Amino acid sequence: MVLKHGNAPKAFGELEVPPRKTGQVLTLKNNYKQMKKSKKPVPRAEIINYGLYEHWDRDSKKLPGFLDLTDRIEASIGIEFGMIVRIHQAKGRYIDYRIEHPLFYDAEGNPEPPFEGSYRINSSYFEFFIGDTIWEPVEDKRGAWILSVFIDGILIAEKTLHLY
Prior knowledge:
Blueprint: H1 33-36, E1 44-53, E2 66-69, E3 72-73, E4 80-88, E5 94-100, E6 115-120, E7 125-133, E8 143-151, E9 154-163
């Protein structure tokens, strides 16, 4: 699981859509009561790209190189997949991320829960990569992987990637 700050290509443009529309660029509106009460600016989020990426050094601040815009990914060992999200006007806030994956089990035979975490945004213009790499056994990684990003409990970006 990955979440990192760095630089990414310019956005394809913004499109205002309600939350839970996957594959779209999301822009928050002022009608969210929780954010409206806050004196902080309302954050905006854009999905810059999604699909396949070059192998990524998780200790680097540099984002992985983008290879192919796709939501269908052939599952093979070592393939890096995910999305790059750009967030504006959220400095000092925390984003929560969640990766829902097909059912697979840990070494003790227990079902793996969705991958979740939080990250503090340290600038008003913030870009990060959220994704994963395919590992053995490949068979149980096939299916839908839902990548979601939240601020203040509100969904700001989501993309479903299908591994086959």
